[in-house]
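Narrative summary of target 7.
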Amino acid sequence: MSILVAEILGTMLLILLGNGVVANVVLKDTKGNNSGWIVITTAWALAVFVGVVVAGPYSGAHLNPAVTIALATAGKLSWSLVPEYIAGEMIGAMLGAFLVWLFYRDHFNATEDEGGKLACFSTGPAIKNTFSNLISEIIGTFVLVFVIFYLAGPNLDIIGNVDAKAIIGLGSLGALPVAFLVWVIGLSLGGTTGYAINPARDLGPRIMHAILPIKGKSDWGYAWIPVVGPIIGCVIAALLYVALV
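Modeled conformation, tokenized:
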């Protein structure tokens, strides 16, 4: 399996299960309606576990452009591979979002709340404040990436091509520790913006929301925050890790 295909499949499963739990909790007349934040954060953590298990052996299961950019910034991934990773992550996120809509189509049609339907695709702030929302995404992504570096350890080979001895990324850590990491970020730091901490996770599904026959605006005025914030956070984490190690 190529890096591109692995990242597509892993990210698709991540978004299908992650946005799927939001749909189950938010949309009208589902079995999980109003089951709450604990259900959402737990399922997102397990969605990461599933995506990493599938993609890990083939691509390292970045599933997140912030992870890809951080590894390249730290010198643990060739920059020449970054476009392939990000393409796979974006395509996978869009496919996953489409499958959520297909799966819950009747419930989307039954739900009148346009904001709730958008939440099944992309994140949004609890209190809209550009600076605070941006800081939330920077800090959340910093924690994700910084801890990933320490879970992985400093003595991993640098990838220059697909046949490198060690694939650097989420899959090299073992899926379970990463799931716990995402879980605690959601529980502790997710209440302000919904913890995108992943540009593809937000942008890909937001594009699908705009394309699919769903009533409501896609809130493009906010859309840059869950893209720019995670990129800033991941670069800070990578630079600090390199400086310390």
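Residues 58 and 163 are 10 Å apart (CA to CA).
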